[in-house]
């Protein structure tokens, strides 16, 4: 009697589907997904499969490729596999540099103009609102400071969260207590355990979708400070160099590009940037 053929559970992506997804994310977003990330990718895509009413993750692979749904599903696929780790006041020395060195240097005494800041790969907005808090504190102790903040990310899900400015209460733990009192409205319902950024700061920030792999960035070219932290590590060296060059082209002379502490600059000098601190670069 012949034995039955082994059954595929459907709880894993077929190898060909995983390879196709890796190629798509590398091409479209610049992010590398090595084999070690497969379990993470499959875990996230299972949630998407359930949302679509599919029986398992293998059915999701068929939905993408055999079902010719890649175009309509691409934004959701990107949302699923991109990492969106963020915190308030992450790498706090950068915000000390912003308020103690960058802004005073960019706005010498007597100069009055709005500051433009950009949080690239902003995730759910914690970095953008941290910038807003830091600058609002400068306003309290000195001349009136006008500023606007642009937050961009490739994930539509995180941008929706950023615009709302609502976060779990525990996320505000790194915010100094006096700033938390001024800039965060905690829910009066104890069961909700969440807070919201005050309207005055939410009005200072605008959030837009941007793929750092895009050929052009449709934003101003006189930005004072660009934060692009902890995203370049997911790109290969040529992509890092290309992205840095495009970001640098949006800085005003003397403006600053701030990277994450785990990142290094590739081709900074070629982009007209000089290093002023280990992860901080200034345009010429």
TrEMBL record:
Top EC class, one word: transferase
Organism: Lichenifustis flavocetrariae
Function: Methylation of the membrane-bound methyl-accepting chemotaxis proteins (MCP) to form gamma-glutamyl methyl ester residues in MCP.
Protein name listed in UniProt: Chemotaxis protein methyltransferase
Entries under Pfam families matching the protein: CheR, CheR_N
Catalytic activity entry: L-glutamyl-[protein] + S-adenosyl-L-methionine = [protein]-L-glutamate 5-O-methyl ester + S-adenosyl-L-homocysteine
Alphabetical UniProt keywords: Methyltransferase, S-adenosyl-L-methionine, Transferase
EC number: 2.1.1.80
GO biological process: methylation
Superkingdom of origin: Bacteria
């Amino acid at each position: 009697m012949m034995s039955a053929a082994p059954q595929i559970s459907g709880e894993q992506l077929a190898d060909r589907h995983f390879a196709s997804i890796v190629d798509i994310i590398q091409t479209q977003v610049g992010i590398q997904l090595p084999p070690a990330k497969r379990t993470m990718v499959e875990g996230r895509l299972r949630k998407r499969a359930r949302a679509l009413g599919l029986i398992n993750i293998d059915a999701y692979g068929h939905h993408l490729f055999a079902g010719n749904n890649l175009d309509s599903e691409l934004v959701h696929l990107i949302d699923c596999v991109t990492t969106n780790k963020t915190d308030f006041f992450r790498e706090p020395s950068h915000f000390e540099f912003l308020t103690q060195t960058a802004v005073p240097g960019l706005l010498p005494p007597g100069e009055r103009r709005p500051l433009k800041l950009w949080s690239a790969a902003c995730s759910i907005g914690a970095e953008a609102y941290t910038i807003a808090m830091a600058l609002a504190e400068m306003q309290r102790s000195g001349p009136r400071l006008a500023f606007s903040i642009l937050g961009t990310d490739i994930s539509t899900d995180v941008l929706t969260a950023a615009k709302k400015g609502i976060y779990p209460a525990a996320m505000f733990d790194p915010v100094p207590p006096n700033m938390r009192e001024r800039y965060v409205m905690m829910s009066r319902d104890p069961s909700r355990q969440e807070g919201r950024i005050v309207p005055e700061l939410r009005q200072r920030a605008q959030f837009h979708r941007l793929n750092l792999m895009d050929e052009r960035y449709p934003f101003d070219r006189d930005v004072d400070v660009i934060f692009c932290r902890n995203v370049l590590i997911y790109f290969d060296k040529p992509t890092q160099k290309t992205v840095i060059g495009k970001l640098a082209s949006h800085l005003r002379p003397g403006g600053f590009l701030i990277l994450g502490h785990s990142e290094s600059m590739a081709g900074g000098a070629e982009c007209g940037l000089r290093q002023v601190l280990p992860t901080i670069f200034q345009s010429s």
